[in-house]
Design a protein that fits this description.
Keywords: ATP-binding, Kinase, Nucleotide-binding, Transferase. It comes from Aureobasidium pullulans (Black yeast). GO terms for molecular function: ATP binding; protein serine/threonine kinase activity. The protein has a five-stranded antiparallel β-sheet with strand order 1-2-3-5-4. A two-stranded antiparallel sheet has the order 6-9. It is built from seven helices and nine strands; from the N terminus they run βββαββααββββαααα. By secondary structure, the protein is α+β, with helices and mostly antiparallel strands. The radius of gyration is 19 Å and the shape is globular. Helix content is 38%, strand content 13%.
Length: 268
C-alpha cells in the first residue's frame, strides 16, 4: 500500500524548477496536490509534482470520490474536473484550514464557535459514512473554513469506498498506535474525530510535544492528554479514542444531546 498521506510535504521552491504553467496564486501545497487561487476566485488543485504517476493517480481517485458523493453542505463543493490535466476546480474556502486558523486565532475563538465546528465536523463525517466512504485522513488540516467560518471536509486522496483499499492514512495523533483493538475504517475515522474535537477545544494537537513512541506508551496506559475543561465533551473524546462508539451517528447523538442541554441552560 502506498502511504501517500504520510509522505513529506513538497517544497514550493520546486515550482521554479519544473515546467509548470501557473493557474494563479499558490494557496496550498500537499503531498500530491498543488492548490492555486484562480482569477475567477476558484481553488484549482493540480497534481504535484507535475507528471508524477502517483500524483496523477491520487487526483483521479479523489475526483472519483467527489463524483460518487452527492453535494452536501459539509463537503467542499467541486465545480469542475479536467480529466485531461487531472485538475479539480473547487470553491475557495477563504479562511483556510481549521488547523492553521486555530493556531493563529485560538485565544479569541469563542466557545460557541468551537461547538459549531464540532457539530459541523461530526455532521460531515457522519454523511460520508452513510455513503460508505471512509476518509482515512480526517484532521483539522482537512477541514476547511469559508468566509462565514462554516466548516467543510476536503481532501479525499486517502479515502476508501465501495470496498476499495485506502491509499494512505492519518499521521500520529490522529490515528491510534498500532497493536490495539481499533482497526476498522469506521473506528479509525472516529478516533481521528476524537482527536479533532480535542484540537478544536484546546487549540492544539493531542499529545503535542510527545514523540511517537511515548504517544503509544501513554495511549495504551490510558494516560490521555490534560482533561478538557468541558468534562462531558472530554468524555466523548475519550470514548472516540477507546473505540467505544460503533458509529459516527452515536457520537453525533451524544454531542447533539450535550448541545441541547447547554442551550436549555443558556435560556434559563
Amino acid at each position: 500500500m502506498r502511504l501517500a498521506c504520510l509522505k513529506t510535504r513538497a517544497d514550493t521552491s520546486d515550482i521554479r524548477n519544473n515546467s509548470y504553467t501557473s493557474k494563479g496564486k499558490i494557496i496550498g501545497l500537499g503531498v500530491s496536490g498543488l492548490v492555486e487561487l484562480s482569477e475567477e476566485g476558484y481553488a484549482i488543485k493540480s497534481p504535484w509534482p507535475p507528471g508524477s504517476e502517483d500524483s496523477l493517480s491520487d487526483m483521479r481517485f479523489e475526483a472519483k470520490v467527489y463524483n460518487y458523493l452527492d453535494s452536501h453542505h459539509r463537503l467542499i463543493k467541486v465545480i469542475d474536473w479536467d480529466a485531461e490535466e487531472c485538475c479539480l476546480t473547487m470553491e475557495n474556502m477563504s479562511n483556510g484550514n481549521l488547523k492553521d486558523y486555530l493556531e493563529k486565532n485560538n485565544a479569541c475563538i469563542s466557545e460557541p464557535q468551537r461547538r459549531r465546528w464540532i457539530l459541523q465536523a461530526v455532521e460531515g463525517l457522519a454523511y460520508l459514512h452513510t455513503k460508505g466512504v471512509i476518509h482515512y485522513d480526517f484532521k483539522p488540516k482537512n477541514v476547511l473554513l469559508d468566509e462565514n467560518l462554516e466548516a467543510k471536509i476536503a481532501d479525499f486522496g486517502c479515502s476508501a469506498f465501495n470496498g476499495s483499499r485506502p491509499t494512505g492514512g492519518a499521521g500520529v495523533r490522529y490515528a491510534p498506535p498500532k497493536g490495539g483493538n481499533i482497526s476498522s475504517g469506521v473506528q479509525l475515522d472516529i478516533f481521528a474525530l476524537g482527536s479533532t474535537i480535542y484540537a478544536i477545544l484546546s487549540g492544539k494537537d493531542p499529545f503535542a510535544g510527545v514523540d511517537s513512541e511515548e504517544f503509544g506508551d501513554r495511549f495504551w496506559r490510558c494516560d490521555y492528554p490534560d482533561i478538557l475543561e468541558d468534562v462531558e465533551m472530554d468524555k466523548i473524546v475519550r470514548n472516540c479514542w477507546k473505540g467505544a462508539y460503533p458509529s459516527v451517528e452515536e457520537v453525533k447523538r451524544d454531542i447533539d444531546g450535550l448541545s441541547q442541554r447547554i442551550a436549555s441552560i443558556t435560556l434559563l
